[in-house]
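Researcher: Structure for this, please.
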Amino acid sequence: MEITFDGGKVVTAHSHGHKIRTDQPLDSGGTNSAPTPFDLFMASIGTCAGVYVKSFCDNRKIPTDGIKIIQTSQFNKETGLPTNIKIDIKVPVDFPEKYKASLIHVADLCKVKKTMLNPPVFEVLTSII
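Model: Predicted structure, token format:
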């Protein structure tokens, strides 16, 4: 993955042929033209759970039209870091009861969540181009 600086507060990640743009809000000197890196990080948690839920339903021919995931977070007031992240899988009234516990199980398989629970070692360095 390559990270580039694209003017103002815009920082872009280039990964597998995709460009993932980030920016900062107006009150932080950005133009609010894209999500912040932290917003993308938080979104990766819910969307990762969503990939697992979608796959589970697709494999069982269960329509996902009426399913949505609501992610809420609580933050430490001093550090600004999340202290509690809740993922609520909302299903329609006719969703098969026998699969509700399985939805929770597959959402828990999310690779982003597993990485947070088992954090990697970070190494930050500088080198000459």
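Researcher: Any notable elements?
Model: The radius of gyration is 18 Å. The chain has three helices and five strands.
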